[in-house]
Amino acid sequence: MAFSYEQILHAQYEGLNEEEAQAIYDLEAGRHAEDAHRTTKAAHRILEIDKAREALERRASGYAASQQQAQSNRFGLSRDELDVAKASGISDEQYAVNKNRMQQMKAAGYWDQGRVFK
């Protein structure tokens, strides 16, 4: 079975945490040994990990938002249409049925800007 996006994001986040722990260890070891090269290298690595974590968090947020939209929009309605359905007191499904009916009437020439023909 293929990995889910959630599993991939989680694995990347855990990997960054492990890398950060190692970089912090290297920073402290270099600091105590008064090794400027090791300390500087570890400090730079910590900054790189922070940037990678921020990028990963943006990706995770975007993925979560797309999943929310897909779940709340199973009938292919826009956010505005979902709001209209809610304000009208009808279900998303009934709004989608009505929308399809109106589009079919328009295509068949039975509907034009609120007037019914034929």
Protein architecture, described:
This protein is mostly helical. It has 2 domains: 5-72; 79-116, no CATH class. The chain contains 4 helices and 2 strands; from the N terminus they run H-H-H-H-E-E. It has a two-stranded antiparallel ribbon with strand order 1-2. A hairpin with a 2-residue loop joins strand 1 (111-112) and strand 2 (115-116). It is rod-shaped, with a radius of gyration of 27 Å.
Radius of gyration: 27 Å
Structural class per helix/strand content? mainly alpha
Element string (H = helix, E = strand): HHHHEE
Low-confidence stretches: none
Supply the number of structural domains.
Answer: 2
- How far apart the termini lie comes to 55 Å
List the topology elements.
Layout: H1 5-32, H2 36-72, H3 79-88, H4 92-108, E1 111-112, E2 115-116
Antiparallel strand pairs: 1-2
What's this entry about, in short?
The protein is mostly helical and 118 residues long. Helix content is 78%, strand content 3%. The longest helix is centred in the middle third of the chain and has 37 residues, at 36-72.
Annotation keywords:
3% strand; single chain; 2 strands; 4 helices; mainly alpha; 118 residues; 2 domains
